[in-house]
Amino acid sequence: MVLTEKEAQGFVFADPGKGIPAARKWTLIGKVYSPRPLNRSVLERSMHRAWGLHHEAQFRDLGDNLFLVHFSGEGDWKHAR
């Protein structure tokens, strides 16, 4: 997402190098609603089967059961979203 100068006014970006990496094609952010923390590797295996992915997907734990998922191709990305 790109903000215009007017939209960015009032935002304070303490450390732009931390947190979510730069945008890449075929990337989604998802949240797992569970009272317990979820293991990234368990989520990765489960979602690969549930989505029926043809290629590997890279999962990154962003904390609070929030995950960034980068797909290897547009077909898998469209199917998962």
TrEMBL record:
Domain of life: Eukaryota
Segments forming domain DUF4283: 25-79
InterPro entries associated with the record: DUF4283
Any one Pfam family match given in the protein's UniProt record, by short name: DUF4283
Protein name as annotated: DUF4283 domain-containing protein
Species annotation: Aegilops tauschii subsp. strangulata
Lineage, top ranks: Eukaryota, Viridiplantae, Streptophyta, Embryophyta, Tracheophyta
